[in-house]
Write a structure and sequence with these properties.
Order of helices and strands: HHHHHEEEEEEEEHHHHHH
Largest sheet: 4 strands, mixed
Cofactor: FAD
Family: Belongs to the acyl-CoA dehydrogenase family.
CATH architecture of the largest domain: Up-down Bundle
InterPro entries: Acyl-CoA_Oxase/DH_mid-dom, Acyl-CoA_Oxase/DH_mid-dom_sf, AcylCo_DH-like_C, AcylCo_DH/oxidase_C, AcylCoA_DH/ox_N, AcylCoA_DH/ox_N_sf, AcylCoA_DH/oxidase_NM_dom_sf, Mycobact_Acyl-CoA_DH
Protein name: Acyl-CoA dehydrogenase family protein
Number of strands: 8
Radius of gyration: 21 Å
Strand order of the largest sheet: 1-4-5-8
Keywords: FAD, Flavoprotein, Oxidoreductase
Distance between the termini: 45 Å
Strand content: 5-15%
Structural class: alpha+beta
CATH superfamily of the largest domain: Butyryl-CoA Dehydrogenase, subunit A, domain 3
Number of helices: 11
Length: 406
């Protein structure tokens, strides 16, 4: 990406600020958190993110009138790259800042923007995403969670179950896709509601994963309530708005994600040198292909963002999700092949419990490569499975005939 003098100065500012502030009080926070490790030091990472907010480093791309900096796409890319290069702790407000916030800006009312955007900028309220259900994962249009408007009380009453809800235990609010039109099917009759999580009628149950941690949760709504005005768009607009949110999810932050991917790839290459696995021509070829794939991923992400610098992203964003999810899953497999038989043996230490910090009854811990392999199996499923992304690309980008459906 070409950088002018303004962008170069911005990069120097970001790099200098992070270097200065990731010392002293927050020096120990470097490298904490991330996929498969969201249990690590959550309170410390929350304090760090509020420190970021106080200095004006959250929600950079948001318009200034909504608390952002109005940063250009190039500057947002720079910040995310430098953040990852500095090994700053994994963000805790990602879902509010990068998913819900842009959605409210694009589709919400001024009252909703005034109510919900400032606490996201300040990291005073955390969000989770209520999309998937036991029978509506990749097939999101099959959502069955119901919401009924109680006009007399000025509230929506919500009943149903969501699953794979990332960070629900920490969240204050959830944006949930609910069926608000009785008898409706598929994409019709869905609405996009904003639901407080800390109320009677909301039951959160952690799902323990292969890694021994619990980023994901089940959420049960039993006559949970939210205000009549806590709906984004009109009743029935839920599908359109939910798809726009997914597009925002695949935006600028993916460039910072790729810096983390590069660090992982460099670590696998170094591991291959140390173990001698790099002398295997087949493994060496796979390492080379992984490097090439990462370069292509970056160029594609830049091209995609250049095309959606204004307005909600289109279906082309599915390409980025498909590419990075497949690449990262393959990197986990490559890491295990480089480890060889030793990758099958855990180190015998006790693991972490879902409550972030206490020891669990799990009799082992995982090294970084084992955790990468296990957690990256989910990359091709969450945030839209590979199969669904291929359908979207085929039908909505390439204009191919729709897949036969029952």
């Amino acid at each position: 990406m070409h950088q002018n003098e303004t962008d170069q100065a911005f990069r120097a500012e970001v790099r200098g600020w992070l270097e200065h502030h990731l010392s002293g009080e927050f020096a120990h926070a470097r490298g904490l958190g991330g996929p498969g490790r969201e249990h690590e030091a959550f309170a410390e990472r929350l304090a760090w993110e509020r420190h970021l907010a106080a200095a004006g480093w959250t929600c950079l791309g948001w318009p200034r009138e909504y608390g952002g900096r109005g940063a250009t796409v190039e500057q947002q890319v720079i910040f995310n790259e430098e953040y990852a290069l500095a090994r700053a702790p994994a963000r805790v407000g990602h879902i509010g800042e990068n998913l819900l916030g842009p959605t409210i800006i694009a589709f919400g009312t001024e009252e909703q923007r005034a109510r919900f955007l400032p606490p996201i900028v300040a990291v005073e309220e955390l969000w989770c995403q209520g999309y998937s259900e036991p029978n509506a994962g990749s097939d999101l249009a099959n959502v069955q969670t119901r919401a009924e408007l109680d006009a007399g009380r000025g509230e929506w009453r919500i009943n149903g179950q969501k699953v794979w809800t990332s960070l629900a235990l920490e969240a204050d609010w959830c944006f949930a896709v609910c069926r608000t039109e009785p008898g409706s099917v598929r994409h019709n009759g869905l609405s996009y509601l904003l639901v407080p999580m800390r109320q009677e009628g909301v039951d959160i149950r952690p799902i323990v994963q292969l890694t021994g941690t619990s980023e994901f949760n089940e959420v049960f709504f039993d006559d949970a309530r939210t205000g009549a005005g806590d709906i984004v768009g009109a009743p029935g607009d839920g599908w359109k708005i939910a798809m726009a949110t997914l597009g925002f999810e695949r935006g600028v932050a993916t460039l910072g994600q790729q810096v983390g991917f590069r660090r992982e790839l460099e670590g696998v290459i170094e591991l291959a040198r140390r173990t001698g696995a790099i002398d295997d021509p087949l493994l060496r070829d796979r390492l080379t292909r992984a490097w090439m794939g990462l370069e292509i991923m970056r160029l594609n992400a830049l091209r995609t963002m250049a095309g959606v610098a204004s307005g909600a992203p289109g279906p082309e964003s599915s390409i980025s999700k498909l590419v990075w999810a497949t690449w990262h899953r393959d990197l986990g497999e490559l890491a295990m092949d480089v480890l060889g038989a030793s990758g099958l043996v855990a180190d015998g230490r006790r693991g972490w419990a879902p409550d972030r910090g206490s020891e669990s009854t799990q009799p082992y811990d995982l090294n970084d490569w084992q955790r990468l392999f296990l957690f990256s199996r989910s990359d091709t499923i969450y945030a839209g499975s590979n199969e669904i992304q291929r359908n979207i690309i085929a039908e909505r980008v390439l204009g191919l005939p729709r897949e036969a459906r029952p």
